[in-house]
Structure prediction request, 117 residues.
Amino acid sequence: MRLVLDTNEYLFAFGLLKEPFCEEVIAAILDQFPRHTLRIPAKILEEVRRNLTGEAFREFIAFLNTLSITIDQDFSVPFELGAKTFPFISSQQENVLSSLVKAQLTPCHLIDVVRGL
Prediction:
């Protein structure tokens, strides 16, 4: 499965303020490679570079190199694509997603719970 993660997932996995769920998502992607791969838009790379220390950014780049990730210069996810995907979410997943959104949990929590469904 090809994944696109939000900047915050990388910041909380590699930055000073660690979020265990974000670290677990990154570890799961490494463990499941090449089954799961990442696409990283240039905009996200720039946001990560701007918000990590030099050392943390080098660790992030090492992670990308481990997975042989290339940066997508013109990649963005159009709203219409997300809207088309939503109907394929099961009712169980929809209930979990709705509960997580209402509880204002981070996207890392969301990924961790959905991964278990």
Summary: The longest strand covers residues 2-3. Residues 20-32 form the longest helix (13 residues). The two ends are 15 Å apart (CA to CA).
